[in-house]
Design goal:
single chain, alpha+beta, N-terminal domain of MutM-like DNA repair proteins, Helicase, Ruva Protein, domain 3, 2 domains, five-stranded antiparallel beta sheet, four-stranded antiparallel beta sheet, 11 strands, 26% helix, DNA-binding, EC 3.2.2.23, Znf_DNA_glyclase/AP_lyase, zinc-finger
DNA sequence: CGCAGGTCCTGCACGC
DNA sequence: TGCGTGCAGGACCTGC
């Protein structure tokens, strides 16, 4: 479910409510949420208990909380349906609660709750290593293959352009490839394509520098906008960092709008309906006028 | 039955 | 032939 803006909202919520807290207890209610912690539940509990949590970090859709003087981190991936809640322990357990991490800061006791219906997400512990391109930056070893996201100060559009030109794939697949650039999922891929007026099946090797720059600026813009709208949603006594009701209005122009009028065409007095296609085993939404199918489309 | 916003493994094709 | 790489497709889950 969550793409970059949702994950960033979670990061800010954790930053505000859990930074410099100490883990006093860890309870695993469903081992499947530890699938990526290969050495198992007992190790996870033993190593995390007693740790002082540092400021949460993010790259793309990966979120991590460093501990142990920056040597390791608790890594969180929300998958399709994951949520992180910071709550008072007296609140009843939500449905699909998978992992409970009790934390204290001063005399305040809270719980960091990982909730996940579909179990594509999960938690694990990992060592922090220097980023290859900027050694002063640390990230989990399992996250080193993830490219920088468009909101990252060191995101390099020119480098992405060069890689795209060498690829024999289509633009949407490239946008969704987290090793090329991260944080973009199905929704924001469609939104970025619409804003840049490019079709999802466009062969990557034919893209111009200008088109690549357009689609990544569009991705950056739409994600910043979503973030600015979601930024206040965790400011509550009991923080629903990423709540059930809590997906904020993303100001979507195409995603989920099939059969409805294209806003851009409408402004010109033209009535075009947004279409939905099965593409790469998922739904893709686009305007057939603003985003014409390229002469040589690629699956 | 179809649908859901993610990730990663497998197997294939290709070049060296 | 074997190996590495890039790419497409499916598996992984539950619930509406």
């Amino acid at each position: 479910m969550p793409e970059l803006p949702e994950v960033e909202v979670v990061r800010r919520g954790i930053h505000r409510w859990a930074t410099y807290a100490t883990v006093t207890q860890v309870e695993v209610l469903d081992q499947r949420s530890l699938r990526r912690h290969e050495v198992g539940e007992a190790d996870f509990i033993a190593r995390l208990t007693g740790q002082l949590l540092d400021e949460p970090q993010r790259r793309g859709k990966y979120l991590w909380i460093p501990y142990g003087e920056g040597s390791h981190a608790l890594v969180v991936h929300l998958g399709m349906s994951g949520q992180v809640l910071v709550t008072d322990p007296s609140l009843p357990d939500p449905k699909h609660l998978k992992i409970r991490i009790t934390i204290t800061s001063g005399d305040r006791i809270q719980e960091l709750r990982f909730v996940d219906q579909r179990i594509f997400g999960g938690l694990y512990l990992d060592a922090l290593v220097p980023a290859v391109d900027r050694p002063e930056e640390l990230l989990p070893a399992t996250v080193t293959h993830i490219g920088r996201d468009p909101l990252d100060d060191h995101f390099d559009t020119e480098a992405v352009f060069r890689k795209l030109r060498k690829r024999r794939s289509n633009l949407k697949r490239a946008l969704l490839d987290q090793s090329l650039s991260s944080g973009i999922g199905n929704i924001y891929a469609d939104e970025a394509l619409f804003r840049a007026r490019l079709h999802y099946s466009r062969p990557t090797e034919t893209l111009t520098r200008n088109e690549v720059s357009r689609v990544y600026s569009a991705a950056e813009q739409v994600m910043r906008l979503a973030l600015s709208q979601g930024g206040t949603s965790f400011d509550a006594l009991y923080v629903n960092v990423n709540g059930e009701s809590g997906y904020f209005d993303r100001s979507l122009y195409v995603y989920g709008r099939h059969g409805q009028l294209c806003y851009r065409c409408e402004e010109r007095g033209q009535e075009t309906l947004i279409e939905r296609r099965k593409f790469m085993n998922r739904s893709s939404y686009f305007c057939p006028v603003c985003q014409p199918v390229p002469r040589r489309a690629r699956k």
